[in-house]
Design goal:
This protein is α/β, with parallel strands linked by helices. It is 42% helix and 15% strand.
Length: 238
């Protein structure tokens, strides 16, 4: 494999972590085992991005649509989330990684919210890398939320409608103050963005792979970044 250009690493990478269920099915295992194996890749990919000096990493962990799944599967996913936070929080703190949540976590079980709030508090001053975790997240919901917040500001007289612009709108997104989303990665062979970061991906480079998320190891991440580095990002120019 070619060497990565460490001066051309995406500032912000988003990943739709997909394929856990299919990975388990191929092995005649319960879906929960696919999620468990997938959680190991989270640890590996977070650390790889940290070493590459990626500024923000956004992971799609649980969407607003995932509530349609069986209750037992949702419960096991939540258990994995708590396990990840409890076992990795000290390492994230040591590595100066800040956790940021994208999504409405008020809908999650109280025990999950407590662990998340604890992690947010203990990492709030970290500034080496931001780890955005999409929980009960939907891109359309994020845009509606931002619009509602701005509308309230206008109603309260804090600014006029004419003051609203792209820069202001960014400040009401979950990713406020963060770099633009440079690279969106979707494993598992699907070719859609599944309501993930719809506003942020306006000029993102897309990279799709047939690799299922539990098999998405560091070398696959490097492959995605290498492909990104070969592209000519013109942003509407020539």
């Amino acid at each position: 494999m070619d060497e990565l250009d460490l001066k051309n690493i995406p500032n912000h990478i988003g990943i739709i972590m997909d394929g856990n269920g299919r990975w388990a099915k191929k092995r005649n295992l319960p879906r929960s085992m696919g999620h468990r194996e997938g959680s190991k890749r989270v640890i590996e990919i977070v650390e790889a991005c940290y070493r590459l000096n990626v500024k923000s990493l956004s992971l799609y962990a649980f969407s607003t649509e995932n509530w349609k799944r069986p209750k037992d599967e949702i419960s096991k996913l939540m258990d994995l989330l708590v396990y990840y936070i409890k076992t990795q929080l000290d390492r994230l703190i040591k590595n100066n990684v800040k956790i940021n949540v994208m999504g409405d976590i008020s809908k999650l079980p109280d025990r999950i919210v407590q662990e998340i709030n604890r992690a947010l508090l203990l990492t709030k001053d970290n500034d080496k890398m931001i780890l955005n975790i999409g929980l009960n997240y939907g891109g359309r919901d994020e845009i509606v939320r931002a619009t509602q917040l701005i509308a309230k500001e206008v109603v309260n007289g804090n600014f006029d409608v004419d003051d609203i612009n792209k820069e202001m709108f960014n400040e009401y997104l979950y990713t406020k103050g963060q770099p633009e989303l440079d690279l969106l990665i979707r494993p598992s062979g699907e070719f859609r963005v599944s309501n993930f970061m719809l506003y942020q991906l306006a000029y993102s480079e897309f990279w799709f792979s047939n690799v299922l998320w539990p098999d998405f190891k560091e070398d696959v991440l490097y492959e995605a970044i290498l492909d990104y580095q070969k592209r000519n990002r013109r942003f509407g120019g020539i």
